[in-house]
Amino acid sequence: MAKKILFIDAAHPELEKGLRDMGFSCIHADVSYETLLQTAPDYVGYVIRSKFALDRAILDQSTQLRFIARIGAGMENIDTAYAASKHIECLHSPEGNADAVGEYVIASTLLMLRKLPIADREVRQGIWDRESNRGMELHSKTFGIVGYGHMGEALAKKLSGFGCRVIAYDKYKSGFGDAYVEECSLSYLQKEADIVSIHINYMPENLYYIHKEWIEAFEKDIFLINSSRGKVLHTADLIQCLQSGKIRMAALDVLEYEDIRLRNRPKKAWDEAMRYIAGSDKVLLSPHIAGQTLESSMKHARILLGKIQRIFNQPD
Fold it and tell me: Has residue 274 got a pLDDT over 70?
């Protein structure tokens, strides 16, 4: 009998095709946390994005489980340490949306530098104000990247075509400076950067990593982009820095209010801070889509398939 892999969330068809070619039976079911507790012993693999948490209770019941394949980068909904103790491989595919995230960051940067959201709205309202909407050019700026993993590296390479200076800080790694980026300390980045893009994973130690004192340590007034995880940025502190002018504008693809399924609160449940950023001309908002492209979906599938093939010692 073919070994079963459960698709908890939808994935690009190439992943299922590749797994079937390997001899697996791929099961699609509208499974809940509670029903998986009952059926967990049936599966050797889970494919998941963010539908619910794979915690100790689930993993204890998953007696045949060989791997968990997380579509995308974040692993916060998986108890990876406990899975490792049970010899369950935890796979993810941050490489898959690195290009998409890099393009989002550059697009957001250009929108802010050229004041396009405001200019667009004003023209639609009959306001033709050229001087107030005079923008700035990216090539004259120093671009700071905080977190230099797959996303940060892809962004640096894309920025090379704009002629701007690119510097990066990563508290977990060193020795990554090359033709595309200058490696630096956090204090140096805070001294030099005009634009700051955040690319750090969420883990308890990174809760509110970006806070009022961190922002105020910058010598210049900055443009801030967060496309990592919402909970690394303290929203109320962000608002204070927008009001003071320390942050010129912010582009937020992620919000601290997102639940485990990466959904924001319904509008009727918004707090004062959420209402403020939703109504501010200084904030660009998008619904956690920086990495969501047609191309990245296929890349995730191919990357995860290759990693699963290596677990089962099959050629890519």
Answer: yes
Average pLDDT, the chain: 96
Give the right CATH number for 4-92+295-311 from 3.40.50.2300, 3.40.50.1100, 3.40.50.720, 3.40.30.10: 3.40.50.720
8 A C-beta contact, residue 281 and residue 251: no
List Cβ neighbours of 308 (8 Å cut-off, separation of 6 or more). 19, 22, 45, 67, 69, 91
Per the CB < 8 A criterion, the answer to whether 79 and 58 are in contact is no
- Residue 24 corresponds to which tokens in the numbers above? 């697996």
Confidence of residue 260 (pLDDT cuts 50, 70, 90): confident
Please give the CATH architecture assigned to the domain spanning 97-285. Answer: 3-Layer(aba) Sandwich (3.40)
